[in-house]
């Protein structure tokens, strides 16, 4: 009896060590069921990386996405990015669309964030998307009237999203050139504390 328990404990320990070593135990911050991605939640507690904005005013009133794009990365992928400068298996980036609200404030004229109006996400996973370019898949939970979000989303065909990302993004399909937090944190092997001169002073 004791012997059996001991053997079982040793086997379990071996399994846990094997899983840790292969990285198979790494946490996924998303759920895919029957090929559909469930709407991500919790991302406003992740790491915020930047906010691109393509306002209508600068695009003849016809910007494809006239909103602010607040972008977040899950915490485990952020830790991996700081260590290796790469996006790990299971990376998820969420892009929350926020309407341009007011265009004037006491500080001056400008673009100020209004209401949340949409949600998009991209996930890198060889396990789930072995045949997608770069193993990235792209999703949108936004609705045409921008007043609600869908519960689940199907991935887009590669031609709709992957191709533009593949050609123009600075790092592995991700537009890190527009995300200062990712740029500064890349492969530093250190915590991105901010408030340091090294973030500001560039070497010539
Ligand atoms: C014409 C090029 C182009 C196409 C097509 C495109 N994107 Fe993007 N995408 C961008 C750019 C540029 C950014 C970063 C700047 C911004 O948000 O405006 C971006 C950023 C993103 C991000 C934030 C993470 C990242 O990779 O930088 C997500 C999520 C995203 N796009 C989803 C989608 C989805 C979903 C589709 C397909 C329906 C799509 N994109 C198609 C150009 C494109």
CATH-assigned homologous superfamily: Cytochrome P460
CATH architecture assignment name: 3-Layer(bba) Sandwich
Report the radius of gyration as a whole number of Å: 21 Å
How many DSSP H or I helices? 4
- CATH fold name: Chalcone isomerase
- Helical proportion, percent range: 10-25%
Averaged pLDDT: 90
Task: Report the order of strands and helices.
Answer: HEEEEHEEEEEEHH
**How many structural domains?**
1
Strand arrangement across the biggest beta sheet: 3-4-5-8-9
Bound compounds: heme C
Describe this structure in words.
By secondary structure, this protein is an alpha+beta fold. The chain has a single domain (27-189), classed as 3-Layer(bba) Sandwich (Chalcone isomerase), CATH 3.50.70. The protein contains four helices and ten strands. The protein has helices at residues 2-22, 75-84, 162-168, 180-185; strands spanning 32-33, 36-38, 47-50, 68-73, 91-100, 104-105, 108-109, 113-124, 136-140, 152-153. Strands 3-4-5-8-9 form a five-stranded antiparallel β-sheet. A three-stranded antiparallel β-sheet has the order 1-2-10, with no helix packed on it. A two-stranded antiparallel ribbon has the order 6-7. Strand 6 (104-105) and strand 7 (108-109) form a beta hairpin. The longest helix is centred in the N-terminal third of the chain and has 21 residues, at 2-22. The chain starts with a helix and ends in a 19-residue tail after the last helix. The structure holds heme C. The site of heme C (HEC) has 20 residues, from strand 4, strand 5, strand 8, strand 9 and helix 3.
